Amino acid sequence: MKHLRIASRKSDLARIQAYSVGYKLQEAYPDLKIEYLFSASAGDLNLDLDLSKYGEKGLFTADLNNDLKAKKFEMIVHSWKDLPTEPRPESEVVATWPREDQRDVILIAKKYWPEIKDSKKINILTSSPRRVYNLSQGFKDLLPTKVDELEFSLVRGNIPTRLNKLFRGDGQALVVAKAALDRLMSAEADEFQSTKKEIQQKIKDCFFMVLPLSLNPNAAAQGALAIEILRENTALKQMLLKLNSENDFKAVETERDKLSSYGGGCHQKIGVGLLKREYGDVLFLKGLTEKGEVLNEQSIQTPFPEFKNAFPQSMKEVSWFHRTPLNPSFNFSSNIGYLPARKEAWSESLPYEFGQTPVWVSGLKSWQKLASLGVWVHGCSDGLGEAESPNVDVLFQKQIDWCKLTHQLSPAKNKIVTYELTEKNIELDLSSYDLFFWASSTLFDYALKKQPQILKAHHVCAPGLTYQTLKQKIPSSHLHVALGFEDWLKKIERE
């Protein structure tokens, strides 16, 4: 193939996405000439439509699909979440590029923050029933001020339009897909620079939070690009398959299949996110089906060993250290971001500017505890550890140097010591247990020093630094993963 016509919607974001696919194709096939065709969909033209009422009608994709079947072009680049979950008879999605961040971001205009604190309520702009349902389940607890009421107002339009509606007072906060912001704020072509600068300035005028998948799982396939062609075009299919991101394709298919099993469609109050990781697939599912079934699942699809006696069944059983707060000493810079290992790792003596100093925590409980101290937290790793990059440099518009706030025994490479651990003088007998959960490698090292025979047992920990450290000491056949201590308790109760 020497000439390829690529179509997409005409918004800045859609064009950026189409260009990104075209550039990748031209890198792989230098002789390929690419022509871009852009058009507005029915959904783009009527901003008064309530999308939640249109289910699977493909308001943003049907017109393009009709033109593909008429052979006005050979390929369409879609935001995959816009596609109906039902397959189309004459065309198919054959590939996707590496997926962008699948999470949502909530933006709160700084100028409204005093009003929010005084009124104890916040008005959030969104067009998604999924976001309304999920945020209603626990978002208030993540805010560093008391909020009694969440209000939601409908918003439509592209990202700049939605931001303008936020700043003109239609609402005090706005929820958008993080991938959309990342792509627009990273655009390099000259034609997007005006939009890029406008968005960057408005983001600077907002406090933001990256909403965790455990609270707010993404719309199925969010952040992924769908490359659609006619089924009969086998030559183009072979070209695209060579560039396909297989893991992302499988993850997106799983999310869409899961959504489809409950009826499918953007009108559903259902979020489903899948992360494919070396230790297993991590699934987040949350929402309310049309039949009234409450969905709330977080799981790692990984084998769990057989056992007779498991330890611990309460974190009080591993209270083996005294913690002494310290005044941290380090060279501060405006690029530093904090990763507190726990609430107690936070120190009032840390240089900190509300909402501006990057703060990232391990999970929702740590987030809620820091919020209760008045700290603005920008996001969390959902119990998956430091291996999960916060991926917020684009939003902060600078590179963040993350430092873990922790104790002197932590194996973290880039750390700020804010408290000291000293061993308690206790008698320890673990000889009757054949399965252990470790909340940290420090606890494992302490137990191993006291009773080396535990090395023969099976061990469980959360992903992240603990998992990476224990991998060096425990055979892979005896090391397993859980999504934190609560998931561990559920696993040992089920077995």
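The record above closes out task 2.4. Task 2.5 opens with a second protein, given below.
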Amino acid sequence: MEGDEVERTIMLTGRSTYIISLPKSWLRSMGVGKGDKLKLYRRGPNEILITTSMIEPKDSGCKVVEISPKRTQMMRAALSCYIDGCTRIILRAKGKSFLPTHLEDLREFVKRNIIGAEIVSESSKEVVIQVFLGPPEFPFDQALRRVYWIMSNMMNNLLKVLEEECDEELASSIVKSDDDVDRLVYYLSRQLKMSLRSVKVMEETGLTDLKDAVDYGLIVKFLERIADHIVNSARIFMGENHIGRELRTKMVKALKEAKSNFDDAIEALFSLDYERIEDIVERSRKLRWKLKDLINRSTKEERGVLSLLAEHLARVSEYSSDIAEIVMSMALRRTRKK
């Protein structure tokens, strides 16, 4: 079973071939039997990966889900199956029929949130969603860089909002950009989940190690949270706020520091350069104290808005620091392999 561990003794057969035995229950659970072929991959000086020749993930393909005909359940089921790696998702109404308004909302949800998916068939009792886009067409690295570009642009726009003493239209555009981040995060999560099940998908994704897939999963989650804090910062400026010009200037400086930490962490990720990571962690710690000092120096009228904004900027920096620490682990793992 998944997660089980056994120890086997290597035996010699003939003069040049070593053999090991595999648990019968494991092979049966994977649908492997006598005469089937296994593939072996050398992953490092002390690691060998054994996989079946049928290396497509079991959950890819068609998945049928019976759900109550409710708007939120329809969307949640579609997204869950998508992230799980399904290429054909069939939603069937349990009990009552799907309402026309619910079907319309589902169409909009799929269009807005699920990259590479289309509703190919629908009725009051059944909806069929087909996923046409996979790792070869939109590689993991390209999607990750796209997320970074969008988030960097969101931060640049947030700087303009602060510097120009509130531009509600620009702040609103930052909030809308979060939909693009979410779509890519769902797509990246789908690729990573499929990579954990399939060597073929992992290689198509461009990953070289199962441990990398786990690390990237955490990084993607941190990116999603950073985007949320950027959006919540922008929402502060979509209504009345009370921050004086002097404090605005200081918050611009704090945002630039948070963005610098974010940029450096992502640059380290793409280059796997860990030399500056300690500096990122230390800068993040110092920024938290700077923001706390700004709040203490603010007026009672300013403090409420300022406290919210300061917390969001601190969290952007701290999640960037978390990404940097994961990058250090990944980079050191590469060094050990060499």
